[in-house]
Amino acid sequence: MNNSQHELSAIDREYHRIILGYCKGNQDITLQLKSVLGKLSDQLISPYVKGLPKEDKKRLGNLCELLIKLYQDCKAGDKEKQHALTLNEKALWLSSKANGRYYYPYYEQIGSFDHMESVGNLALVDIRDIKGAFELCQGTFPTCSFVCALQSLIYYMNPDQFVSNLIQNCSGGTFLVVFYFNGTRRSCIVDSSTSIGQVGSITNPNLKWPALIEKAFLQIYNCQVPQLFSGSNFANDCYLLSGFVPEYISINKLTEEKMNQIFDAYVNKHTALVALGTGELSLDAMKQTHLLPFHDYIVEKLEKNNHNYTFTLRNPSKPKIHAFTYAFSKVCRFFQTLYMNWNTDKLFRFKTNVVFVGSHNHKFNNESCIENPQFVVKANPHGSKRETWILVEEHLKKDTDETLDSKIQSIRWFEGDKWVWGPNSGLLIATFNSNGTRFILSKVWLPKTGSLTGVIEIKRDLGDSFVYSVNCYSNFPAFLSRPIRDAFSVQFDSLWTMTESGGNWTKNTYLNNPQFEVFCDEGTFVVNCTIGIFTQKDIHINAAIFDNDFSEFKCLASFDERLLVAGQPTEYRPGYEIFSVSLQPRKSYVIVCSTYDSNTLEEFRLRVKCDHHLTVKRISTSLGVFEERKKRTLSELQNDSWNNAYCFMLRRSSKVALKVRFSTYIREIQLINKDTMKTMFDEINVKHKTVFLGSQKHSIPSGMYVLRVKAQNSKESIEIGATLGTDYRVELLPMD
């Protein structure tokens, strides 16, 4: 390798690191860019570069153009930035690390100038040689799915074009393999060494480029010992090699209608590739069929005779054995999965790709989906439904991980473009379950409104975030985005404690639960409001909203079912509850969050969203600026006369709020002015053991006041606990 090759190789590696730094927002890359541009300018006039083919010179020019745009962006202010890369392009660059290595997005107009020292005897291999490419044979490595996919693609596509798009000779014993993963085509650089046991051709022992592709394939999965590779599957590997969209069909779900669709796509329209995979097989089944367990087989031919289908299969590990045929009934007995990979270029005119970041950090383990990763597929409204395919690809981990297991369990589709809180909070269109791989393909029909929200269900036992790409295929312009948030949304994290856990509304202690004030600030229109309460899945909870506009208290002072806002559920549900109500403008409401069991002490989250602005705030348990608490026992009571309990003196006017708890039921309670004997506040026919009396909104004048009660039964003793809230410090005194 000459000096110019060394220099270009160093530039290639450095510019990738610089772009990655640019995408991370690093501010110190300007000098690096300037240095690389200077080195590149020197190389453009070197004898080596002058002797390069025209195509290579053009690629160097394209690299210069990109680096200049990045340099100008770094030097410009925020308003002058040209944004050399879009946000999604930056996200794809930031997704370059997989299993401990970097695999940068492949720019066809730039290619690669990375060179390694020649190792072994492959530096002189002509990758344009396709002799024997139709007779590939799996070696001793457990890569049957990879060989199946590679062989099927060679059958399907123009071999010369397919190979030239997949692998390039960078000279000097270096090869560039281009794979589809982590949202885009990515560059994988390998040297020219191979090992015994790799894929080869049974008719051309000198055909070595398949082994280089296999080497790059194993490198992506960080497989240090190829013989111990945990395996993949045909659909995954076919996507990796070609970008053809994977679909996994369980054999036991193959209906006649589905087989007709597969036959039409594979045989008539040539829009898909097909392969079969076995699962676990008994020894008797293996002896009877000569099939291998957990093994993929190439489908060379699919034939139809009336309603009967026949598969012609080939084992990638035993190519010398002639292809064998299986009737559909036999396929159903011994195979587990039918793989399809769709050439979407033949099916759709538009493709959209967006990278998202999802999180596993669910605060609660309930069945709601408000914290699940979500995205929206949207198009202009149309008079009819339109078919759309959406492929979700979970990116490979940045750190070392040979497992291919998926974190995604399913995707549920709801009509509309709003954030979905729960499985019953929107119109469910369809559900697509994962087969354990990193891909889920959804075939859906956009409704006339033009939008669907996809809700991803993930494994709850994983705490880190993950990155995934969403690819949308359609015959009309479609867009991908996050769901729309409502005009107003608020969230409170709180908990039920020893003093604030009153249980369900049949209990006398219900008013001790956490409460929240809701006030419709503006407008003259009805406010559509959605309320959700969330906690752990085994706890039965309820959020109830009451009309509190005429109450003298900010909190709910008495339970009255007539004050419940219409349209809300009354039962207690496990884990979460979501409902929608209509609120009147310029009115005050109270939300009470309760558990069914008053002994439950747990965290919860309250969310409120609506189409207009609301004021929502936690109601303090304090009755006033100052509080005074006293307990006492009243004995020898008479049920037909008043019994004085407490008194207090107001030196000046003040708001007075009392919360009185009784050990048993009473008939009546009053607060009177001792001097004038005027009744200030009273409650007749008391129904609860806790009574709120007074007002947090209006003041009463100075003077001596007496709190008195009437008992239900004569000669009964009652324990009384009273809390007095006022604007300034007032002493609450027992009174005989």
From TrEMBL:
It comes from the Eukaryota. Signal peptide: none annotated. It holds the Pfam family Peptidase_C2. The keyword Hydrolase applies. InterPro entries: Calpain_III_sf, PalB/RIM13, Papain-like_cys_pep_sf, Peptidase_C2_calpain_cat. The active site is at residues 144, 295, 315. GO terms for biological process: proteolysis. Coiled coil: none annotated. One of its GO terms (molecular function) is calcium-dependent cysteine-type endopeptidase activity. Keywords: Hydrolase, Protease, Thiol protease. Residues 134-316 form the Calpain catalytic domain. PANTHER family: CALPAIN-7. Belongs to the peptidase C2 family. PalB/RIM13 subfamily. This is Cysteine protease RIM13.
